[in-house]
UniProtKB/TrEMBL annotation:
The chain crosses the membrane at residues 85-106. Keywords: Membrane, Transmembrane, Transmembrane helix. This is PASTA domain-containing protein. Pfam families: PASTA. Residues 110-175 form the PASTA domain.
């Protein structure tokens, strides 16, 4: 039997697992302000092993635990009198430990902890299914909002938190406002959230015959309209969009206007005209600068023909 194996892309692994690795560093006692730098050190030290591993998680977690393990002082032999005292104390401890073991055995185990999944870009029905698969239950409350009907606005507890299995999650979902002022905004917001849904594996929005893609000031690349409908052809950009909304309330800034000359310290591509763009501003990607992930979608009569992304790299 022939077994095929592809090396792990270290950058993609870092992007996908960053939040969990930083959280694990904190669980191991690392100070909050130092957790990210410690994870960076471990990933840099293990880069070659990560690239060769089929599943890098066990070796990265082991390296993180070793990096944060407290130093073990050298053992010194006890004098005879001290050893006899230890033996006497140990006998008493055995009795105490046996009594404690009985109490622990009778005490019920604490419930399993579950990480509240991201509901970024989901409607209430899909959110309930995601929470159910995670071992959680939910209650949905509708609130008037200038958002697509049923879109998840917030949860309590917030996404990314660890909660006991079986916890009931309060899901706040949009009840679309039927007002004149909301109608114009709603068209743009529906298009924006549709693109987020596409990033999460939903149907693709309309694309033009060719789509130009510029990421962080790189040279423009081109996709056919058919290729643009395949999430795998976006070189990880759609995964970054999902990661930007993984923790906290599912917020998305939406604006229709010409893009400014500079965003996140980068100039607007010279190949892009000043025609209005549908600008999506999502959350900050873990491990990057404080600049939020920003996508400018340029549209023609047939669909999206250009996407300019600023990832905060």
């Amino acid at each position: 039997m022939l077994v095929l194996w592809w090396p792990v892309d270290v950058h993609e692994y870092r992007t996908a697992r960053w939040t969990r690795l930083v959280e694990r560093a904190r669980e191991l006692g690392c100070e909050e302000e130092q957790a990210e730098s410690v994870v960076e050190e471990v990933l840099a030290a293990q880069r070659r092993r990560i690239a060769r591993a089929e599943d890098p998680d066990p070796l990265v977690h082991a390296a993180l635990e070793q990096r944060l393990a407290p130093p073990v002082p050298p053992r010194r032999p006890l004098p005879p009198a001290a050893r006899r005292a230890v033996v006497g104390v140990a006998g008493g401890l055995v009795v105490a430990l046996l009594a404690t073991a009985v109490v622990v055995w009778l005490r019920p185990e604490p419930p399993e902890q579950v990480r509240l999944p991201s509901l970024f870009g989901l409607d209430a029905d899909d959110a309930e299914q995601v929470l159910e698969r995670a071992g959680l239950s939910s209650d949905v409350t509708r609130r008037p909002a200038c958002e697509p009907d049923g879109l998840v606005l917030d949860t309590e507890p917030a996404a990314g938190r660890s909660v006991p299995a079986g916890t009931r999650v309060e899901v706040l979902a949009a009840l679309t406002q039927e007002t004149t002022s909301c109608a114009a905004r709603l068209v743009a917001r529906r298009e924006a959230w549709r693109f987020v849904g596409f990033a999460r594996g939903g149907p693709a929005p309309p694309f033009a015959r060719t789509v130009t893609l510029v990421v962080d000031g790189s040279a423009p690349s081109t996709l056919s309209g058919e290729a643009a409908g395949d999430p795998e052809r976006w070189a990880g950009l759609l995964d970054l969009l999902v990661a930007a909304g993984a923790d906290g309330p599912p917020r998305l800034g939406v604006e229709v206007a010409p893009a400014p000359p500079r965003t996140c310290g980068l100039s607007r591509p010279a190949s892009i005209t000043t025609r209005p763009a549908l600008r999506l501003v999502a959350g900050t990607i873990p491990g990057r600068t404080s600049c939020p992930l920003t996508l400018d979608l340029y549209r023609s009569s047939t669909g999206i023909d250009s996407v300019v992304a600023y990832t905060g790299r």
